[in-house]
């Protein structure tokens, strides 16, 4: 960190440092530490801490999307630029710290950008009791919008971990490619008649008339697809590659997250007789399934899927023909149950004989 600042100072008389992160990540403390360190090296340093526009939080709750209103209106960055110019009249280094510094609409040319990394879990734990609800709800949604729109961690020069949780490597629950024995942690829901573990994959021949679906549109309820899973309360990223030899209409395979019969989601590639297969995502809440699909315009017999869990929210992504990951769906499971089953699934709603290889399954904790 300090080496980078010194390198910048070799080529410039003055430098501007931006420090941001989520609420209660430690931005202000870290800015003061940098200031003290640099002042000990005989630099003149000024810290600017962003100040919210007056009554902005109260005003935000007058709108349907309060965190969005705050995101768009919380700070007057033109005034911040004026402060920066004023500070540079008598200082070598100016440090600006606060929320939302790295929005794509903030046109401040920082020489060094720093992100103070912290999980939402720790941020909420650090909040005083009278502010916990605000951190759990308002600020969390604010930062999730910020991450989605601006991806600030990808824009910075340095990421500083300021959270004990982040000091530990994320737990890897299952990794069939690098640790094939981890499949022993998994168990079947609706075990297929024919299956086996082969190196880094699980091979299945599906049983007839198997599926997961609840009520919507068709009226029927099926809850007997083959699912190999672990259970966890933690947030995670789950990926797999599926390779298949489809025979019957609706033969399908992919990834699944399940709470119970009435609350689950799945993503798959599904066989269409005489046509290219289609991608799909089914989300079931309170016993009713909805189904989104995307038709492919070419034949394939393999695909990659990824599901990311963040509390009750899930992002489904797909990679077909190695064209790169792209988002298929963002969705929500409404159940209050924290523990979920997650893993691979396959089924044949019509008849048996569908051959599936579920390869390179990896389920890894993701900090949120």
Give your account of this protein's structure.
The structure is a single chain. A hairpin with a 6-residue loop joins β19 and β20. The model has no long low-confidence stretch (mean pLDDT 96). With 368 residues, this protein is an alpha+beta fold. The protein has 2 domains: 2-167, Rossmann fold; 172-365, Jelly Rolls (Sandwich). α4 packs across α7 and α6 (120-126) packs antiparallel against α7. The two termini are 25 Å apart. Strands 6, 8, 9, 13, 18, 19, 20 and 22 form an 8-stranded antiparallel beta sheet that branches. A 7-stranded antiparallel beta sheet has the order 7-12-21-14-15-16-17, with no helix packed on it. The protein has 9 helices and 22 strands. It comes from Clostridium ganghwense. Keywords: ATP-binding, Nucleotide-binding. It holds the Pfam family DUF1349. InterPro entries: ConA-like_dom_sf, DUF1349, KTI12/PSTK, P-loop_NTPase.
């Amino acid at each position: 960190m300090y080496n980078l600042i010194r390198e910048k100072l070799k080529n410039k008389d003055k430098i501007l440092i931006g420090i941001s992160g989520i609420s209660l990540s430690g931005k202000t403390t870290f800015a003061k530490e940098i200031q003290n360190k640099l002042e000990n090296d005989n630099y003149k340093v000024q810290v600017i801490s962003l100040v919210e526009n007056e009554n902005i939080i109260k005003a935000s709750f007058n709108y349907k999307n309060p965190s969005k209103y705050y995101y768009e209106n919380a700070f007057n960055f033109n005034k911040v630029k004026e402060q920066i110019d004023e500070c540079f009249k008598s200082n070598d280094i100016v440090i600006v710290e606060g929320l939302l510094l790295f929005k794509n609409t903030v046109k401040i040319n920082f020489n060094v950008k720093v992100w103070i990394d912290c999980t939402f879990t720790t941020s909420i734990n650090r909040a005083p009791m009278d502010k916990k609800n605000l951190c759990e709800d308002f600020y969390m949604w604010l930062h999730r919008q910020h991450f989605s729109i601006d991806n600030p961690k990808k824009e910075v020069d340095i990421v500083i971990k300021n959270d004990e949780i982040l000091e530990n490597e994320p737990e890897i629950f299952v990794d069939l490619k690098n640790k094939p024995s981890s499949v022993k942690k998994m168990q079947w829901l609706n075990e297929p008649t024919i299956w086996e573990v082969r190196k880094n994959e699980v091979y299945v021949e599906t049983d007839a008339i198997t599926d997961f679906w609840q009520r919507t549109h068709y009226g029927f309820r099926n809850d007997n697809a083959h699912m190999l899973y672990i259970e966890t309360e933690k947030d995670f990223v789950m990926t797999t590659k599926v390779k298949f030899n489809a025979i019957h209409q609706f033969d399908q395979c992919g990834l699944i997250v399940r709470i119970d019969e009435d609350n689950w989601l799945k993503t798959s590639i599904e066989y269409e007789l005489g046509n290219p297969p289609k991608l799909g995502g089914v989300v079931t809440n309170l016993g009713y399934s909805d189904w989104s699909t995307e038709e492919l315009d070419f034949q394939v017999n393999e695909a990659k899927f990824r599901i990311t869990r963040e509390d009750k929210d899930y992002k489904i992504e797909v990679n077909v023909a190695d064209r790169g990951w792209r988002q298929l769906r963002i969705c929500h499971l409404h159940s209050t149950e924290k523990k979920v089953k997650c893993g691979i699934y396959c089924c044949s709603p019509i008849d048996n004989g569908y051959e599936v290889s579920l390869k390179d399954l990896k389920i890894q904790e993701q900090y949120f």
